[in-house]
Amino acid sequence: MPGTKENFAEETFTFKRSAWKVILRWFIFVVLLLLNVSLVGSTIAQHVVGRSQDLAVDVATYVLVFFFDLIIGLPLLFEVDSIWILPDKLVIRTLLWQTKLPWNEIVSIRQPMWLKFLILRSKHVIYLLHKTDLQPFDMLVEKIADKVGQEKFLG
Hints:
The protein is α+β, with helices and mostly antiparallel strands. It has one domain. It has four helices and eight strands. It has helices spanning 5-11, 19-49, 55-78, 137-148, and strands at residues 13-16, 80-85, 89-94, 98-102, 106-110, 117-122, 126-130, 153-154. The strands form two sheets. Strands 1-2-3-4 form a four-stranded antiparallel β-sheet. Strands 7-6-5-8 form a four-stranded mixed β-sheet. The longest helix has 31 residues, at 19-49. The two termini are 36 Å apart.
């Protein structure tokens, strides 16, 4: 009978990352945030005091921190911590936000062989689903592919 608790439970699937991995990612996020804030703060403090470093050293330091932000920070923000597959939508929780994504808003899904991520692209955001964190991953891919259709799944 539609609408009963049994049918709802059968059609709902949950995939979550381990709690210690979420805590580790929060720690890394806070360290990156503090690195950015302290870099700007130390540059301001040096200019207030009247000491200034060589411009090349300042630029190199900012480039290095920007590199860390790109390589570590972006995947931290867009990696999925937990995902719920519901009959009418996909509920995705990342480190900083949670979104309810209707199935028709998913543009494409890619699963590159050389990456440990499944790349789920919606109309506005790209989400990274880590293959080893969201287990059983094969079941997750199968359920998403069934809901969005094989034409959007670019294996």
